[in-house]
Amino acid sequence: MNTLPARWTLSTWMLVFALLDQVTKWLARTLLTPHQPFVIIPKVFQLTIAYNTGAAFSMLNQQPQLLTLITSLIFGLLLLYGLGRSRFLPGEVAAFSLILGGALGNLTDRFLWGKVTDFLDVTVIHYPIFNVADMFIFIGVLILMYVHLKPYPETPAMKPQPDNAPQPKLSVGRPQNVKPDEPA
Q1: Relative to the CA of 104, which of 23, 79, 122, 178 has its CA 20 to 30 Å away?
Q2: Residues of the chain with pLDDT under 50
Q3: Residue 37: its pLDDT value, please?
Q4: DSSP output for the chain
Q5: Residues 42-80 as b or e (16 or more Cβ within 10 Å = b)
Q6: What is d(CA 143, CA 15) in angstroms, rounded to the nearest whole number?
Q7: Are 24 and 131 in contact (CB under 8 A)?
């Protein structure tokens, strides 16, 4: 994919995903009542408002400033890496957009509220409550894994050459068909 359109696409979708995450969190904060789950599918899925000052599974729960600093640094490095790429494999722009959009959504929560708003509660497996940004990050990582782990068809340049295959001739200095007194 051409680099400039890929960078614009990545940046645009990253912002769209972060905005979508923020809208869903605003709806959760506005419409849900703490300690009163809104059941969607009984004993399977419900909406439960929760706030997380830590990372995934409440890690670093007692150090929100340190977590915000670490998250900001990782986000910045990922953004520079994603926007600094000269080429993208198919699917990488979507993956980076999802990961960075989700990270930006959660980072925005940390800067605005000092905590991340979670509200998606899968009760059938007793999974920790999460949010849309977490889903974006997870899906983006899955896409990256697929892109980088799937086998690509071999091109002639990738195929190993037998030892007796003709090797390209490399010349150093003046081309052989130029006389010494002529400029090269």
Answers
A1: 122
A2: none
A3: 96
A4: --HHHHHHHHHHHHHHHHHHHHHHHHHHHHH-BTTB-EEEETTTEEEEEEEESSSGGGTTTT-HHHHHHHHHHHHHHHHHHHHH-S---TTHHHHHHHHHHHHHHHHHHHHHHSSEEEEEEETTTTPPPB-HHHHHHHHHHHHHHHHHHSPPPPPTTTSPPPTTSPPPP---SS-TTS-TTS--
A5: eeeebbbbbebbebeeeebeeebeebbeebeeebeeebe
A6: 19
A7: yes
At residue 126, the pLDDT reads 86
% of the chain surpassing 90 pLDDT = 58
Q: How far apart are CA 130 and CA 182, in angstroms?
A: 73
The residues assigned a catalytic role are 118, 134
pLDDT value of position 172? 56
